[in-house]
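User: Reviewer 2 asked us to show a designed sequence for the structure in our supplementary figure. I'm pasting the structure tokens here. Could you produce the per-position amino acids so we can include them in the response letter?
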């Protein structure tokens, strides 16, 4: 990646998507972090330190993650 950007991905999805994310994490280890699954403490750190949050959830009953962000 040519731009100074860091991306953190937390969550799970289709195996194809998870594998693609792992590939990019391996290719750009200083810019992309991937945690497949969910970690409550890590989610708080990501929200607190992030400049942008993207929540591509298929089901989000009340949008709390967006509210926290």
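Assistant: Here is a per-position design you can include in the supplement:
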């Amino acid at each position: 990646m040519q731009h100074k950007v860091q991306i953190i991905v937390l969550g799970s999805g289709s195996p194809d998507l998870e594998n693609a994310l792992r590939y990019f994490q391996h290719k750009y280890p200083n810019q992309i972090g991937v945690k497949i699954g969910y970690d409550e403490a890590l989610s708080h750190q990501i929200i607190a330190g992030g400049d942008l949050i993207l929540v591509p959830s298929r089901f989000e009953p009340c949008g709390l993650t967006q509210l926290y962000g």
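For the response letter, you might also mention the following. Residues 10 and 35 are 5 Å apart (CA to CA). The chain has a mean pLDDT of 88.
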